[in-house]
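Hi F.,

I've been meaning to write this up properly since the lab meeting, where we talked about keeping a consistent format for the predictions we share between groups. The idea is simple: the sequence comes first, exactly as it goes in, then the structure tokens exactly as they come out, then a line or two of notes. No screenshots and no reformatting. I'm using this chain as the first example so we have something concrete to point to.
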Amino acid sequence: MLAHELRNPLAPIRTAIGIIRTSQNDPAVIEWSCQIMERQVQHMTRLLEDLLDVSRITQRQIQFNKENTDLIALTRGSVDALRIVLADKNLNLTTDFAERPVPIFADVTRIEQIIENLVLNAAKFTPAGGQIIVGVQPDGDYAVLRVADNGNGINPDVLPRIFQLFEQGDQPPARSNGGLGIGLAVVQNLVLLHFGTIEARSAGPGQGSEFVVRLPMMPVTPSKTSVGSAIT
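Output, unedited:
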């Protein structure tokens, strides 16, 4: 499965290279080919980064650099960076942010990784023309991040194991959606290592899904933290 997923981006990259070689220096063709290669390289980069994170977590080598930050600002920045990806998939994005900042004490890079993975996961399983909603609201002592979609949904029997490593649900190895089934496992571990929780919800196939992340708003002692694995 790993070899299959890492090999997939190579075919369009090889094709784009061939097109460039026969383009007779046509700027439009070269630009189109470069865009193809860029998208595929980004996809492969995400796969490799997820694999590296699994390795770091399981070997207890992951480190956090925590600081006081605003979850709304992080979420808005992450979503804005993904708008082109969502537009390419013809997906509609709606945000629902609290009027005031929602402060957390966290590793900014890792929180952005959580947000990006959840939004891209929603985009992966939502057909063109679908809707993705990203929201951040305070709830007592917790900051709550929600990523919902009206896409494919999740089978009830898959829901309890959705965060397991290499979980693929009902999709065959040659599925069109891609992915290694490790992104949500990485997300869960990063959330747990921030002393938070994550929950997946879905009414069933074809009825969309929602992921709810709860992170403590109360600050933890500020320090560079090395933490171990929560993957089982």
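Notes:
The mean pLDDT is 85.
The CA atoms of residues 143 and 215 lie 5 Å apart.

If this format works for you, I'll send the rest the same way.

G.
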